[in-house]
Amino acid sequence: MADKFKIIGGETLRGEVSIGGAKNAVLKHLAATILVKGKTKIYNVPHLTDVDIMLNVLSDLGAKYVYDKNEKSVEVDASNITSITAKYELVSKMRASFIILGALMSRCKEAIVALPGGCAIGERRVDFHIKGLEALGAKIKIENGYVHAKASKLVGTDIYLDIPSVGATENLMLAAVLAEGSTRIQNAAQEPEIIDLANFLNTIGADITGAGTSEIIINGVKAENLHSAEYTTIPDRIEAGTFMAAVVATKGKAVIKNVFPAHLTFFNDKLIKMGANIKLIEPTTIEVSCRSRLTSINFVTQPYPGFPTDLQAIAMTLLTTANGVGIITESLYENRFMQVPDLRRMGADIHQDRNHAIVKGVKNLTGATVAASDLRAGAALVIAGLTAYGETTVEKLHHIDRGYEEFEYKLQNLGGKIYRYNDETENQIKGVFNESRL
User: Fold this and answer.
1) Is 108 a catalytic residue?
2) Are 431 and 407 within 8 A, CB to CB?
3) What is the pLDDT of residues 119-151, one digit of tens each?
4) Residues in a beta bridge with 278
5) Any idea what the Cα angle at residue 389 is, between residues 387 and 394, rounded to 5°?
6) Average pLDDT, the chain
7) Does the pLDDT of residue 437 top 60, yes or no?
8) Where in the chain is the domain with CATH 3.65.10.10?
9) How many Å apart are CA 31 and CA 99, to the nearest integer?
10) I want to staple 240 with a disulfide (CB 3.0 to 4.6 A). Which of 108, 140, 259, 406 is the partner?
11) The one catalytic residue among 78, 96, 111, 119
12) What CATH class does 23-232 carry?
């Protein structure tokens, strides 16, 4: 049975919410655990379908794991890797699992990995991954939907990325950990998740400097230098931004815990310019509030530290009821306005011209039946439902479950009227819907 959200809009969000571990960091940590011929324990691991997929990838390669949902931890034992093949059935479900290619090449010097899948937000080719691995000495062929890479040894070299690809940067970092000599990645991605991966790798014995800048140096180490360790993942900046936007959209006030404000500097600045108030309470705690109608602004998505593409759809929802006209330019992906038709169904005034979206604020959105087309578009529609007049049904929740842990429960704790149901359970909660209308 496919789950759906029923949302009764118009409630102001208030209270406290704690942000979970960064999905886009922990997935790469899990891939990196296969470098260690022993046990590695990772904390602050969110319970997400994407995490389950990556754990299944590891298990299929021969690693063993214990996932403690209460402790939010995963212990991986990669003492025995029995396969070098990451199958299509798993990799096709989540693009991030392609990162296993660099890890397998580092440890086994051979890998057979299916070409990746994931959200349909546009073409995200793996050319940069392949060229970088070839520069390190790998021989690669692509056939029948699989990348087959092999090398007698990997040797460090200088690699220049034409664009600061996050995935390519991470894959090449992993591949270079056990390469002979030094590898320098120029025009590297600078996202906080890149820094977190470097910190994780250094914790298990790697030698990496420069993460967070455009030039990363990986000095190759011997396999015996890598060892078991424990590591805590950084908070999820995109989840934090999502809850900040939800509070602001409903003209609420909330304390958001377990957040690194520095990771959201650009986004915070845009919220403040729109009329939100953001106050630092403690180093990892902020208070977010908004009392009046937002003011429209323009923004362009850019690689970090610019405006994150993962918050573009969510920011668009804020513009739909803001005062004035705002223009969004999506510079990273050619198909990341997939939320537009559903926002229009809810009454939004949006004109799309290729990679530009012109959003004219309306007085209010109205409830409708909509469907998540990808992870972040789904979150944007949930926020739209929370602000809309009437009831909204959001379908295809499997997209949202990829990146938000207990999304509806966290929103309920803030006062949001949002309920998960399916065709079998709908009658059981009709009373809740009716009560919410009173």
Assistant:
1) no
2) no
3) 443 445 788 999 999 999 999 999 988 999 999
4) 288
5) 70
6) 94
7) no
8) 4-20+235-437, 23-232
9) 7
10) 259
11) 119
12) alpha beta
The per-residue pLDDT for 123 is 46
What are phi and psi for residue 314, nearest 5 degrees?
A: -70, -40
Q: Looking at residues 365-370, what average pLDDT do you find? A: 98
Strand partners, 148: 112, 141
Global pTM reads 0.95
The answer to whether 220 touches 182, Cβ cutoff 8 Å, is: yes
Q: Say how far apart CA 22 and CA 43 lie, in whole Å.
A: 11
Angstrom distance (rounded) from CA 30 to CA 41 = 9
CB-CB contact of 150 with 173 (8 Å)? no
Sheet holding 158-160, edge to edge: 158-160, 182-186, 215-219, 207-209
* CA nearest to 10, candidates 293, 380, 391: 391
CATH topology of domain 4-20+235-437: UDP-n-acetylglucosamine1-carboxyvinyl-transferase; Chain (3.65.10)
Shortest CA distance to 233 belongs to which of 17, 16, 32? 32
Tokens in use for 373? 């087309």
CB 166 within 8 A of CB 189: yes
Whether 339 contacts 350, CB under 8 Å = no
